[in-house]
Amino acid sequence: MKAVINCLVLLFFSHQLVAQPDSADRQFIHSQIRKYQRHGTIYYADRPLEGVLKLHVKELSKPVIKSIIGFHSTDSIVLTAAERRFLIRQLKRSLTTALNDNLFPISKRIAVDDISAFVSARNRKIIDSLRAMGAAARDSFFISNSIHEAFFFTMPIYIRDRSIFLHFFMWNTISGGAVNLSFYRKENDKWVKWIEVSGGDF
């Protein structure tokens, strides 16, 4: 009996530690990634970078959140205390919940602890390849290729009967990147970025 209970406990925690996104969530994130990287293998971290995520989570402490940029910059959302607690808890949970491997076609998951070494090795490979090219070939290469090293994201976090969700998304290239924490809502049956809580280029 004790062995059975131990097995059930292990199964429970193993389920809790691996994210199980549905197909609609995967499709949404895949479309976001392909806006920046049109083709090639998608490399993504198994969880967000802790320091970066926590920096942006702080913005959810306010009950009234206004968009920092974009078409809906005059819009705002008023969160209840329960909604703020839920969103913050789910974002922090993503730091200890690994995303599934092979979330998308032609993709590879990288452990967040290995990202730095992965990016360094990939940079060296890209730089060596570019050095072997002539100037014209290098220009053509950059025009026709999107060199994205890694993507970091959470699964959509839904509130209000799944009419709104919060999403953390970050990408970087050999020369920089961007990060944003945003609310999305449906417009004409499509999920559209509504309120950008926090974000910027780096």
Give the CA-CA distance, first to last residue.
55 Å
Low-confidence stretches: 4-18
What fraction of residues sit in β-strands? 25-35%
Shape descriptor:
elongated
Q: Portion of residues in helices?
A: 25-40%
- The figure for the number of domains is 1
Instruction: List the helices and strands in order.
Output: HHEHEEHEHHEEEEE
Whole-number mean pLDDT:
83
Give the beta-strand count: 9
Structural class estimated from helices and strands: alpha+beta
The description of the largest β-sheet is: 5 strands, antiparallel
Oligomer: single chain
What integer value in Å does the Rg equal?
A: 19 Å
Protein model, in words:
Keywords: Signal. By secondary structure, the protein is an alpha+beta fold. The protein has one domain. It is 38% helix and 28% strand. The strands form 3 sheets. Strands 5, 6, 7, 8 and 9 form a 5-stranded antiparallel sheet that branches. It has a two-stranded parallel ribbon with strand order 1-4. Strands 2-3 form a two-stranded antiparallel ribbon. The chain is elongated. The termini are far apart.
In short:
The chain has one domain (21-201).
